């Protein structure tokens, strides 16, 4: 089933200048970028995005990390994109993430794990609408789709 996921390179990915390498992984897999923007997340948006963690001991550090410098927010589309992107991203703790995943290859600490990706269709819908207006999402056909999908 074609799905859209909300994916965001966090401030450490932007600062470490590895955005291109990360983007390439999604593109080379055959996924399609349908929206993208660099933005400095403010405290309200950070708290809303990570609302489910508001009672956790790491919440304040998480909010300062996410608001510390710009992030690169995207909507990525593809067949089963939500679970597929979670696999490409790897486990939350980069030390436990398999090598070959983005977190497994590029990160060391839970609090500097470089990328976010929606974990369910309901989160994807909520997060996409939190970060993007409908008119910022581009519906377009990729010319070589028949070489990606049977
Ligand atoms: P996810 O990003 O893999 O979906 P969540 O459990 O939803 O993982 O946590 C959201 C984010 O909160 C993580 O990506 C990470 O940046 C941060 N985080 C989660 N657990 C910890 C922790 O124990 N210490 C520090 N940061 C954490």
UniProtKB/TrEMBL annotation:
It catalyses: a ribonucleoside 5'-diphosphate + ATP = a ribonucleoside 5'-triphosphate + ADP; a 2'-deoxyribonucleoside 5'-diphosphate + ATP = a 2'-deoxyribonucleoside 5'-triphosphate + ADP. Keywords: ATP-binding, Cytoplasm, Kinase, Magnesium, Metal-binding, Nucleotide metabolism, Nucleotide-binding, Phosphoprotein, Transferase. It is found in: Cytoplasm. GO terms for molecular function: ATP binding; metal ion binding; nucleoside diphosphate kinase activity. CDD domains: NDPk_I (cd04413). GO terms for cellular component: cytoplasm. The keyword Hydrolase does not apply. Pfam families: NDK. The active site is at residue 116. Its EC number is 2.7.4.6. Its cofactor is Mg(2+). GO terms for biological process: CTP biosynthetic process; GTP biosynthetic process; UTP biosynthetic process. Residues 2-139 form the Nucleoside diphosphate kinase-like domain. The keyword Repressor does not apply. It is an enzyme of class 2 (transferase). ATP binds at residues 10, 58, 86, 92, 103, 113. Belongs to the NDK family. Major role in the synthesis of nucleoside triphosphates other than ATP. The ATP gamma phosphate is transferred to the NDP beta phosphate via a ping-pong mechanism, using a phosphorylated active-site intermediate. HAMAP family: NDP_kinase. This is Nucleoside diphosphate kinase. The lineage of its organism: Archaea, Methanobacteriati, Methanobacteriota, Methanomada group, Methanobacteria.
């Amino acid at each position: 089933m074609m799905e859209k996921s909300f994916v965001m390179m966090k401030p450490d990915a932007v600062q470490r200048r590895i955005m291109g390498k990360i983007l390439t992984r999604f593109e080379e897999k055959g996924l399609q970028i349908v929206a993208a923007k660099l933005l400095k997340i403010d405290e309200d948006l950070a708290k809303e995005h990570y609302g489910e963690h508001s009672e956790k001991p790491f919440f304040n550090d998480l909010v300062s990390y996410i608001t510390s410098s710009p992030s690169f927010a995207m909507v990525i589309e593809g067949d089963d994109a939500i679970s597929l992107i979670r696999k490409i991203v790897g486990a939350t703790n980069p030390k436990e993430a398999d090598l070959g995943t983005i977190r497994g290859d590029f990160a060391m600490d839970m609090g500097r794990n470089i990328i976010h990706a929606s974990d369910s269709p309901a989160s994807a819908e909520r997060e996409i609408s939190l970060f993007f207006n409908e008119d910022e999402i581009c519906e377009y056909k990729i010319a070589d789709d028949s070489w990606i999908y049977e």
